[in-house]
Amino acid sequence: xxxxxxxxxxxxxYRAPDYLVDNTHLHFELKPKATLVKSxxxxxRNPAAGxxxxxxxxxxxxxxxxxxxxxxxxxxxxxxEKMPQGILVSVDKPEFFLDIQTCIxxxxxxTLEGLYLxxxxxxxxxxxxxxxxxxxxxxxxDIMSKFTTTIVAPKEYPVLLSNGNEISRGPCEGDxxxxxxxxxxxxxxxxxxxxxxxxxxxxxxxxxxxxxxxxLQLFTEEKNINKGDHALRSLKNAMRWDEAxxxxxxxxxxxxxxxxxxxxxxxxxxKGLNIFNSACVLASPETATDATFQRIESIVGHEYFHxxxxxxxxxxxxFQLSLKEGFTVFRDAEFSADMNxxxxxxxxxxxxxxxxxxxxxxxxxxxxxxxxxYMEISNFYTLTxxxxxxxxxxxxxxxxGPRGFRKGSDLxxxxxxxxxxxxxxxxxxxxxxxxxxLVQFRRWYSQAGxxxxxxxxxxxxxxxxxxxxxxxxxxxxxxxxxxxxxxxxLKLGLLDKNGNELVLDGQGTTQCVLEITEAEQSFEFTExxxxxxxxxxxxxxxxxxxxxPYSIDQLLFLMSNxxxxxxxxxxxxRLAFLALSDLQQAYRTGxxxxxxxxxxxxxxxxxxxxDLEPALVAELLQLPSEQSIAEASVHIDAEAIVAARxxxxxxxxxxxxxxxxxxxxxxxxxxxxxxSAKDIAERKLKNTCLLYLCATExxxxxxxxxxxxxxxxxxxxxAAALSVLINHAGDKQAIAAIEQFYQCWKEDAQxxxxxxxxxxxxxxxGNLSAVEKLIQHPAFDLKNPNRVRAVIGGFAKGNFSQFxxxxxxxxxxxxxxxxxxxxxxxxxxxxxxxxITRWKRYTGDLARKMKxxxxxxxxxxxxxxxxxEVVSKSLN
Length: 876
Ligand code: ARG
Ligand code: ZN
Description:
The protein has 27 helices and 31 strands. By secondary structure, the chain is an alpha+beta fold. The strands form 8 sheets. An 8-stranded mixed β-sheet has the order 6-5-9-3-2-12-15-14, with no helix packed on it. Helix 1 links the parallel strand 18 and strand 19. The structure holds arginine and zinc ion (ZN). It is an enzyme of class 3 (hydrolase).
């Protein structure tokens, strides 16, 4: 199972499969430590793969092979060869039935891939390569098969689920029963799913545009059954939305969602049977924050949308992962934008991209949206494949326009329905439907790294012409030294001195998309009477960094006048970045830290402006996170970043205490809970004010937090109050709140995870010792990824100041945890180690200490392939 040095797989080595599997019959007899899996595969030689009858390779990991037969005749060992990752079977006919029996151990399966037990319930996770942990099979996405599945289990497991439609059920000998499911759609093995347990369900139905009735069911453990309404409502909204926006209907008579507590990722789009991490599907106002409600809506949408973008049309190989993930993230982002505030959704997504995806692009694991090699595909479920992939699809949408894009997606689904295809097929459908040339655009799929645009301008007063010059470059990434120019849609507008939009052509257009294709290019705007102020990269029209020498006054002007909401927010961020960089500089040189009065005045006017929507006010008031400041720095000086941000926060909090207080009071009115965009925005603004107020650590402010903590009628307000108490109250008050909260919620897994995460992220000095205690707390469990993400991830990825303490204790702690974790769950270990892999960007001593921690992991013995890939690439 463990290999010191896994081999590298290359896209250029892709070959069509030698054999196809037309039908897959599976029969499970479930037992915790010895589940019997019988499979019968109808196999035939792939006519597209050449002559002769080569041996058939079947993937298999951690399986006990009981028997193997071709057309009913048992094979003796000389007819197949056992290999480390599967078996090679000799074949002497072009078509045959292959019968295999294997035994697996779900109870001891802590990898959470394949079949495993979570709180006594059986469930599966097969993407990307989990099916090979269930039975020997050609486990690759370009082999699509019709599945029939029979599950036999004791009657204490009343619910037995798999993909498709239930076709029969009945009693078996002993106190067992069985259910048989048949999925009429061909699918790759990674979309297979099985669930068995003592589950309750909520039921609803959906009538499709063409009038078919679809049964919707959501399964959970009994104690969570009151937390499923929001997911079901989101599901119906998603089904309606996909019909309206993409013309896509659901295709089976039943759609099931199951919540499980132990899950490596957010959720999985198995055909007709989506399996969700409990944290991404269960919610009630008392237990879930607004952010959680919105995350659930987007993930329920995401998995549902995969039914077309992923299942009906799937990936030929895993290098094409972004074909389904990038496209589906784009779809779910647009769905969320339509359901809530479009501007806020865009701001949140861009923040995530800039803070975390840009860091990936600049780190040792940087890879193109379509990677060309990997050791472990699990390491490539990344922000680059998902989020940057979605930005690439968004740029196609921008270049083609909404109608061209819809024609392209219609053509893509029509051409490739039922097939396993490539990113190239997607782009070609977009091109063919719109007649727009995307030849150069394809480089977005093959070149890694974040392009940098540098914009300069020149105004000729006598001619009235304005010239914008755009230069593009892209830094080297592992294996790619030189980059060729990208095709970049640059959306912009020009503002006059009164803040009005200038007309850019004869038709009265005030916004345009420049297509940047060269390393350097100039664009001319004529008939202007004054030098305009450019509003560049509106709505973040491309995933690039853009530099223009804006003055503070110009940024303040854009912040209050730009018609593009996204760019108003972006101007506020640029202002904050300028100020924070001055503060860092002062801190490093031992100078006096000072915040410009203009900046304070700008925040004041945002707070006092009654014409601005609360949602935008809340966004404009956010200081960039330490992590995003780090990402924007060439050399990361963690201590200076922490000091600078802390100073800015304190200064704003003190200077505007009265304004924050007034705004807080105005919004702090008791009303019944609703999830309307307006109420969500008001809660966010109110809690932003509370955070600034409590940053002063005055008794007055902390009393407000305590009051909110004691009386809140929803988790958003409660959790916000708890967080500021943990971070800013005195020890006694903080500990009391922590304890009281736990006593109230210790039976609720999702709330306990929130509680763990808040403590781990606390910026109190020396918080590492509190984190070390949390690891010992009964609520912590190294086998539960949500708990690991809350405590270890909360600390390493969400607690910039304490994790980066200069003694390196944070890194050593992470290394030790990762080493232990790797023995249980390699995927999660490889995810958690990421923060120290970016050591090269840090200044002096921190870089050295991160590297020591990495070496400690490397030298700790046999690493999983997952962890080995990440650690070895970062030590290179
Ligand atoms: N396809 C799932 C999604 O919707 C993610 C599954 C990831 N699985 C994994 N082993 N990394 O995004
Ligand atoms: Zn997905």
